[in-house]
Design goal:
single chain; 162 residues; alpha+beta; three-stranded antiparallel beta sheet; globular
Length: 162
Amino acid sequence: IPKDKFGETIASVSSKLTLKLNQASKDDIVISDHSDRWLSTRNGLIYVVSGHVINRSKYPVNYIRIKSKFRSNGERLFEQVVYAGNTFTDNELRNLPFEEIFMKLNRRNGDIDFDNPRKLAGLNYDIQPGESIPFFIVFPSRSRILGLKYNIEVEGFERGSE
């Protein structure tokens, strides 16, 4: 490397290396637990998957997205991406129209926790290292499906400011 280009090369490599080292990866944001169940609602049957996602990175993160895929007999039935931090009571799931449920699942910031001043911007904002937040996935179905299988994974997130 010519002497006059050496400084530029070092700066370029350092900036790229620092960027990589300072980024949280999808492996740092993990689904820590989940459960599933059928629920009879005014809209018909729904399959509900709920659980928690935890920030295992060194950095605060925002807007965690969860991707789900539902299959039966190898056939894809339903696919959905939702934001974590949006929660429901059984009563809400039973009585809200599907449109309202899906609108709520797509709110980036998640629910507001009025009892926690740090979470007035929403549960899915400024998630600190070691902190977990809840998530819900709702699959509308015409009937109970025997052999229903699903896969859920962290689809993405944004790194917050330190």
